[in-house]
Write the structure tokens for this entry.
Amino acid sequence: MEILDNLVYTKDHEWLREEDGKIYIGITDFAQGELGDIIFLEAHAVGDSVEIGGSVATIEAVKTVADVYSPIAGKIVEVNALLEEQPELINTEPYGDGWIACIESSTSIDSIEKLTSQEYLNFIGK
Amino acid sequence: MKYIPCTRQEEKQIIDFLGYKSFEDFISFIPDDLYFKGKYNISDPLSEIDLIGHMKSIGAKNNEGICFIGGGAYDRYVPSVIDFIASRSEFYTAYTPYQAEVSQGTLQYIYEYQSMICSLSGMDAANASLYDGASAVAEAVILANGHNKKNKILISPFLNRNYLSVLETHVKNLNLELIELPMGNDGTIDLKSIKSMMADDISSIVIQSPNFLGQIEDWSAIKDKMGSNDALFIAVSDPLSLAVINPPGDCGADIYVGEGQSLGNYLSFGGPYLGVMSVKNKLIRKLPGRIVGKTVDVDGKIGYTLTLQTREQHIRRERATSNICTNQGLVALRATIYMSLLGAKGLQSINKLSSSKAHYMSRKIDEIDGFNVKYKNNFLNEFVVSTVHSAKLLTEYFSKNNYNLYSLSDNELLIAVTEKRSKEQIDKLLDLFRDYK
């Protein structure tokens, strides 16, 4: 299991990365391992607004379903189109091509409730 | 699959293990005022001979009559082989099979059922069935709302009245608004009105054909008038009629639902019936209920299994768009046997037989003074007769003469003719029409 130092994390097992003022969101390697084989992703539409704690996508694994929550309020400006055909990318490359959505927000990533990689590792007890 | 209840001894072991004194003690958390304290209105035990005599005397009060009533449930011929196969113990359960390893036969017939429903309706995927036609309509409307998040639904004024009433109950607390489309003057909807009624907040449009008055709607033309927007087109129909009318899937419908009682099931005083539902591929993850899929096992052999269960309430919980985690297994089994035995040609013949008998009867009624077939040509086996007489008194008169007919309004009858009605029965009924004063 891999937890990258250059990302920040949430207690809902999402990772966040800021790029060009936008926030990319995905789920952690730990989370994808717990969910098992992911077979489908249903994301909100581009242009939808999302509140803190609101769902940006629903992940379907073989035996369970989980929501991906946004820790920040804003507008969904991009969803990962690759996942339509290859949802398993969330399993194989959770921090790379398995990213889920991109949110544009007036709030900075610094101001939200988040965990460092070490805090996240402690949180999941590893 | 067998249902094995626990014995008194096993029940005692369970209760002891849980640390209760008795079953009554175990359920003592139920408030006292909720218990029924009266005496049930049931007689003392009867011997088998007495019981059979008693039940026969009750049964003898039924006046079966010759049935010309339709309106969504039809007195069609049920070949006896259906009772034979469906009552085999391997098949005889109403339950949906969870355990693929012990239910391959059941899963396979459900898979065949789904395939035949897809083939009849021109759709990509069918579920393993729902409770009945009415709840299937409600599920379709809720599916559409889950898909496009819009909340207005255009409803045909000729949707079966029972379906409408069940639909109203289902959507009552869902913030959905049902809007009735205007009637045309030929017993079908007013096609011209559709374009002006379409708007951005329309979630779906629900059109039954043949409709409640027996008239065939033009699904393709309706689809054209809808134009391009997010609204889903829900087509409602008796699956049997799809053997001879254009499949809704080919006419641009997104969802097909219907009442499958016609397929090898008795009238049975109104149920259990069969909710039939199929959709286009884009909606498969929103399709409610069970779905059986075909796959291969580790040795590459074909196997059947429940699939896409993540849509369902037992996994998706409060995010599920439907509460249904079951199907109408036994009734669907009978439909499967019926469709496989008759085949495409057989299903067409049944329609042709019923239709030619219905058209014969309608022509003859139209010639009788005081009676008039309201919409003359555009129907399969069900039609409206307007009359100068009281429809209620008429049905009472027919009933006394062993014929059952349905009064649609004060001066209208709705008549259904199935393949089961003989020319003699029809001619005798026509005489009754002629003799009515």
Notes: The first helix of chain B runs from residue 8 to 18. DSSP finds 13 helices and 15 strands in chain B.
